[in-house]
Amino acid sequence: MALMERACPICNTIERDNVVTLRQDDFTLNNSSYDLSEIPALGLDPEHEYTIVECQSCHLIYSLTHLYPEGEEQVYNKIINAKVSREKIMTWGRRTGDLKRWSELLAVAGKKGKEKIDVKLLDYGCGWGTLLQVASGPGVTAVGFDVTSWKVAFAREQGVTVCTQESELSKYAPFDLLVSTSVLEHLHFPADAVHSMSSFLKSGGYAYITGIIGDVARRSDWEVIKALLARNEEIPKEINPWEHLNYFTNETFLDLMRSNGFKPVDAPAGSNGTQGLMVGLKSALKQRYPFLKNKNAVSGFWQKRS
User: Would you state the torsion angle of the CA atoms of residues 244, 245, 249, 250, taken in this order, to the nearest 10 degrees?
Assistant: First the structure.
């Protein structure tokens, strides 16, 4: 079976409403990281329709289907061009971004000034390991977790520690700090991953966790996507049911984090690292969660409740 149908990956409900329907060309031709010559090996009909749905219970928006395991391996190891992907990390912007993220996380955690640093960091979904390289140094034990073989191999060549099984992380846990950027949207079971992150993090520990695709941070944003498709115009490459299986809104992401013991904390003053995660946060959300006092409340920064 080429494609496998899913229940809601958060609450396991099967009742859903259709949001938008895509064809293969809608999300492959606009992706500069793809080697299009490798796509026929998947054996999929280019005219097959991919449906994005909304759970009637928890209101998560997700791809109704995902590729069979061999197909996912083909996408991540062959269709995604490793050379193009690697070039993205070999830029000044990527390196300064890693530096900024690490310094922001330290600022949120209060690890600054003359206070002695002695922390353990987990990068869950570390990819190429560039943030681990930035964070590594005296007083910091930096550990990564990832399953993409060629990225793990590169990271290890740079001298960083990367685990490929969650069980391997137990010998380093608990961690004081955790980072996970743009991982949860890819996973079959994102709630399980957040639960694992929480279990590896110390009580009171801090994390930077993202998973919201800014173009569809609100349910209403999908009307824009539908309008682009209707006009045969290019949609954002992030709308991709081969890779991005889960499309969190600000509200559903907050629900997921809170249900796993996290509370949002303010980003450091002057930070713009969370730009796009707060797109169109409505007053209704603030009414439901009265503790949201400013635009940074639903940010990438979180603290595990004591």
Answer: -70
Looking at domain 98-212+249-304, its CATH superfamily turns out to be: Vaccinia Virus protein VP39 (3.40.50.150)
What is the location of CATH 3.40.50.150 in the chain? 98-212+249-304
Whole-prediction pTM value?
A: 0.88
CB proximity list for 272: less than 8 A, separation 6 or greater: none
C-alpha 71/C-alpha 3 separation (Å) is 9
Mean of the per-residue pLDDT values for the chain?
89
Between vectors from CA 280 to CA 276 and to CA 282, what angle results, nearest 5°?
Answer: 140
Residue type for 284, please? A
What's the pLDDT tens digit per position in 143-158?
999 998 889 999 999 9
Q: Are 89 and 130 in contact (CB under 8 A)?
A: yes
Residue 294 and residue 18: Cα distance in Å, rounded? 33
Gap between the Cα atoms of 239 and 261, Å rounded: 29
What percent of the chain stands above pLDDT 90? 75
**Burial class of 113 by CB neighbour count within 10 A (0 to 12, 13 to 18, 19+):** exposed
